[in-house]
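Next comes a concrete protein, fold included:
___
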Amino acid sequence: MSGTAPTPASAAADWTTGHEALLYEACSACGQRSYFRRGFCPRCGASPVAVHVSQRKGTVYAVTIVARAPTPEWQALAPYPLLLVDLDAGPRVMAHGTAGLAIGDRVQIGFLRLGGQLIPRAEPISQEDEEASP
């Protein structure tokens, strides 16, 4: 379900810092798993929490279509889907998606480099790929 906790030096090494990784926090007190890292549990307030690397697979929870993009780089891709994905590890993340994704679809989160930034991007997982992976 999840990778091992990174070393303290790599604890912030995720897509927001240019590394192809999705990190989340897990509370040892109540078990809450959160994508947005705070350094404490948003459910029970316990601190510290452990940082883990997600394996990037999940299920589409919600989909919306962005027709008016925020920057010229994104406008070239518009209209494009913006998704909420429930990762198998537990947290929910926002990601850009490929056309045609729907609620309930299984996806793999990869990354797209656009305008000098790394952006999470969800692509569908085929049934064969789903069954073949551990």
Remarks:
- The CA atoms of residues 63 and 83 lie 5 Å apart.
